[in-house]
Each structure stands twice: as structure tokens, then as C-alpha cells.
Amino acid sequence: MELFEVYPLMDLEIVSGNGSWVTDANGKKYLDLYGGHAVISIGHSHEVYLNKLKNQLERLGFYSNSVHNSIQKKLALKLGEQSGYVDYSLFLCNSGAEAVEFSMKIASFHNGKSEFISFKKGFHGRSAAALAITDNDKIKPAGLPDSYVHFAELNNIDSVEAILKEHDISGVIIEPIQGIAGINVAEPDFLQQLEVLCKKYGVLLILDEIQAGFGRTGHFFAHQLAGIKPDLITMAKGMGNGFPIGGVLIHPDIKPSYGMLGTTFGGNHLASTAGLAVLEVLEEEDLIESAREKGDWFIDQLKSIDYDIKVTGRGLMIGLHFPFPIKALRSLLVENGILTGSSSNPNVLRILPALSVSKEELNIFLETLKTILQSTQFKDEQFSIG
User: Fold this and answer.
1) Which residues constitute the domain of residue 150?
2) Helix extents (H) in 112-167
3) pTM here?
């Protein structure tokens, strides 16, 4: 049997990792500034993380949600304390796409409506409903129902209200920073206006923090910079540092009922243990404040490079916008032992390192990038004009 090949793969196999470094099957080391789509939040093979998972696995790896699981309750308590959402409830699942789908179900159960507003260039997952509210026709199969979705312009509040006036909307879902689109930032004043509009029209505000959450931007959640409190918050990626886990934070006005939601594997003993380990390390090593401080420094350094680069993002969620497609540049970085990310915008290089990355490690990238950009290849006219 062969694998069903749907991924364009880099020509390397990662077999081990430690901190911000990974090693391939040939023994070559790479500085990992991508973390497998922003998943690695506290670093590869963190000792606290490994020990907690090992100890839990030796006791019990899994049982279903038909019995009590005190680890889930500990995770909910600690997550509420660290995020500032102590009065919200937590529903645990396995992935970001699931978290999005569950948030849409919760909204519809709560207000009995079925239509949603999403944003152009946004990405929310590859399952059916999540894909319907994702603005990318290239990855949507034929026949996917999307009549209940309306796409507004990011940072354009008038485009949102125009839809709210014409349709009976259940929820508005937004990434505070569009990740896959190329690190497009929702401005704080726009998020504040969005919160006001949602309350005005009786619509639930859903913040998709799947990539931006868990400290990556220097706040626990990226939307907190705007001082807003959404009705629903979706999470995944950095939540488990590589162990599959996702979740939805739910406003106290939204009440649960038996059978409303369900999952076999969501919040299982190992997943909840991984989530607790991440929160413990984030707190003990002060990684969120560290991400803000290092991110500010790193962004300033990137902006000072003598080249036509636009830098977007916050903390350690950064997009480098070049005047040419970055495919060749990214390959050269790999040759020089550095892993970075691409985006749906072919000209954007994404930087999403572990929050524990050091300034020294970030400086390796800075110096390598400068050397590459100063090379003959990247001084050539074909690159400078895109």
C-alpha cells in the first residue's frame, strides 16, 4: 500500500528535535523557525513535557469522555487563569478544524441561526464547514455547501455591517492575524468595532486563535491587544506542542446541554496532559512576555535590513513580504540549515518559531538572510521586480 499523496513535500525527513533545532535522517541539523505550522510552542522535546506525557502514559493512555477525567478539569482551570477567561467554559477536541466546526455549532445552537460572516483570504480548516468559511476555492471540492457564508473585507467595518443589515447572521468568525494568508493583521480598532457591531445585531463573535494563540504574539490570545472579549475562541496548534489537541472557550451566557457536542478522542488523558505541560512551561519560563520582547527586537532587526521587505505580524508570528516569489529563497535557507514557512501568498515567508527561541538563534537567521539577499542571484533584476 502507498500513501495517498496530497502534500508537496520538502526533500528531508526530520527524525529528532531539541529546543529550536531538528535533525534529519542524514544527521544534518536545522534551525526550526516554523515549528510545523506554529505547533511547537515550548520547543522540541522539552523535559517537562516529555516527563509528564511519559508518566501519564505509564498510568493510562486513554479512556473515553463517558467517565470523569480530572486532568481535563485541571487543564480548564489553569487555562482560564493564564488566559484571563476564568468565567468561560472549555470544550476539548482534537484539531483546529474541529474547534472551528464546534464553534459554529455552538453559535447556531445558541441563537438558532445558520449564516456566518468570514473574511477574504482567511483560513479556518479543511473539514466541510470550516472549509466553507475559508476563502480559497482551490482547496474546496465541488458541491461543498457554502450558501450560509458571506465574506467581508478585513479591516473594513462597513463591509461587515452591509452583510449584517441584509442577512440573519449567527456568528462572525475572524483570525486576529491571518496566518496562511501571509500574516495579515486585523487592526485593534477594527476588532473593537466588530465587537460593537456583533452586540448591536445580536451576533456571536468568534475569534479563531488556532495559530495566533497560546502566547505567540506576546499576549495569551492575539485579540487581547484590542481589549475585546469574544463569545467563542477556537484554539489548537501551540496548545499541545505537537500532541493533537484543540478546544473552544465559551462565554458564560452560552449554556450547554447533553448531546449538543461530542468527541471520542477530544481531551483524552494524554492530550490534556500535553496541554497542562504547555501551560506550565509558558508560565514558569515566562515565554509569553519573552515572545513579545524577542518579537519586538526581531521585527526591528528585520525592518533594518537593506532590502525591499515589508514586515508584518506581532511577537513571534511574522511575515516577510518580498517583491518576488519566495520559493527559491526558502530553498536556499533550507540549504543553509534553516526551516521557514510559506503561505498562500507566494511572496510571503512566514516565521513561526518556538516561543523559547533565543535572540542568538534568531540572529543566525538574520545573518543568513542578509548573506543570501546580497548574493548575485538575489540582486538580479528578475527578483527585484517580482
Assistant:
1) 47-284
2) 128-132, 157-166
3) 0.96
